[in-house]
DNA sequence: GATGAATGAGACTTCATTCAT
DNA sequence: AATGAATGAAGTCTCATTCAT
């Protein structure tokens, strides 16, 4: 289970106005990118002036950090919680992939910021986020490793499999939704299927 | 087969200086993003002044377009050429995936710009690039459809499979290289394996 | 009678800082021309940075428009008000010419911008200003026409007379003041005399 | 009669290409103003590159000077020649006004540059041009003074009359042609009439 | 005589940020 | 908590001008 410590909560920005600003920023950052979004862009639709951001976030970058922290924390929680619901490696993998895909589909804008605007963070914040990313990847790596050792999975290159599975899930945020695929649940089922075939079963 | 028409060459910028500027821009756009890269950033390392771009590219955006056009054309050519070298659907898919993965790994910077800086194009240029992207996706879609109809592939959702395979390849440009995976050829082999298992063989 | 509507006030820029910027711009535009005056030129003497214009005027051109609108409105009001004070055509013409000459002499810088920097306006603004110019010319045309029909004036070519009278007044802003002519009132009396002779009395 | 000394000819730029450039510049300067016209604007329509100006004119300003010199010289010659064809003050004035009006109408673009772009000259060139302008004004001043002393003219304020007559003629270049007035000869006749009435005959 | 690449200055404009209100 | 004015830095782009070719 995920319990945010008070530091994190403080950094995300607790007030109602802060939340509105954050939400608007997520949409804009996702659509245009951090560098191409101005504070004016963010505040305009809220009926606020650009300066209204500063009582809530110290800088534009710290707004990105709040979003990043929020997003990465949520994604990690989703994956961790899901994985803990399975008993076998297969079950765990399937739950984790389903959760990760769904998270990227259901929170497409947030996910896009999390996955693609990351580089615009300051060094300090970048490093803090890196930890969360590693922990997320580790969830998948652990499952694949365990399943491979146990013989449940037939994987030649554990690393490559982890990369491939992560890519599959992460990349959802780049294109979702499509005319044909706009149902997060249906997509996650299809992807769980594909991932399972990728790692389970006989060598070719 | 790929035959570059002379128009394309003109739009990409044929002179030597234009090529140097384009190369520098690719690296910068890949590293920081289009919006966060200034013409100064691009020209400084070349010993040029920012204005030196303008004899070669009408605007910063048209420089991005030249890069995008070049990159998309190359990627499409790589995939098309590779697919045409296989006879069975399995062979074609394997060749195409290998080529696409390798292209993203070997031209990582260019690929990143192609896949992630696309949105900064003007409407007109955006539409022109969209055509090339659709043609690239179509190569994979055609192979999967054909293989599925012929029974070579066991795919429940053709669309999802095409998305997943594309994602796998495209996302390479986001993270490549890693300490463990920095050999394009080894990566492409591993990914061809994973993709093959995803689509070939019996239902689970 | 002249009643400024609130829209105009808004477009001209109502705040104190806006008025100072406008005043400085009038002097500069009059002296060097719009194209040769930079925002730095305008703001330097005010102790402001060039960007300080933007809270008040959206673009440099809109600053020119504000000045143009202000100036044309004022000139039209001056002429209209003056003409309405006369009963006979002769009186009306004399009042109107006196007012127009005086306006160009007393507001020489503004008048110069109004008469000579006009062409630098955007198409939309150009058209709006054109309306005011036509209304100003129409005041003179109406008087001359009426006076000619009534026999008060002996004018062969109404159009030419209107052009000549307008030219006389407008051109004041090009040269005023001179060492010998720096008193707006004295000038206007002399010009009223000349204009009166031009149109009144027997054929030559 | 007017005979250009060789210095002037050299400064105007004698070659064929120089003349083409000068002609294009006249049109552009007249339409947009010196400060808003670039060398590219001037050379584009000629199929030349901006640098092609430099074999012929040392700077953009010297191109304006060549035009100004040419124009002022021509205008002065026209007025001087015309005045010399009359015997009485009335005749001289009428000839001079006719010539000056016609010159501004027939050479509208050149005249506009001469009358309104003058201020963009360098100090040295500005002073040289000033001499020509004074000589032109002097032609009118001399006629009016002589005619007033002889009793041919009834003018209260010689200075004002000279200013008014000059204005009438000069301002033609600002608006000519109009839908109704596009015949230089007809205009000059109408204006000669108006000017004559202005100065001839009984006091009012 | 002319070009195309390049420069260096400077233009307008945007923007994150500050601060008095 | 929020605004509007303002700043200073920076961005894209233009332009007169130079120079090798």
Largest sheet of chain A: none
Query: What is the tally of helical segments of chain A?
Result: 10
Mean pLDDT of chain A: 92
Most extensive interface: A-B, 38 and 39 residues
Low-confidence stretches of chain A: 1-9
What percentage of residues of chain A falls in helices of 4 or more residues?
55-70%
Which structural class best describes the helix and strand composition of chain A? mainly alpha
Record field, number of beta strands of chain A: 0
Q: Alpha-carbon distance between the termini of chain A?
A: 38 Å
Task: Write structural notes for this entry.
The structure is a homotetramer of 204-residue chains. The longest helix of chain A has 28 residues, at 123-150. Helix content of chain A is 70%, strand content 0%. Chain A has helices at residues 6-12, 16-32, 39-44, 60-83, 89-106, 108-116, 123-150, 158-170, 172-175, 184-199. Chain A is mostly helical and 204 residues long. Residues 1-9 of chain A have low confidence and may be disordered. In chain A, α7 packs across α8. Chain C binds chain D through residues 31-36, 115-116, 119-120, 156-157, 159-161, 163-164, 167-168, 170-172, 174-175, 178, 180-181, 187, 190-191, 193-194, 196-198, 200-201, 204, and chain D through 31-36, 115-116, 119-120, 156-157, 159-161, 163-164, 167-168, 170-172, 174-175, 178, 180-181, 187, 190-191, 193-194, 196-198, 200-201, 204. The structure holds a DNA duplex (21 and 21 nucleotides).
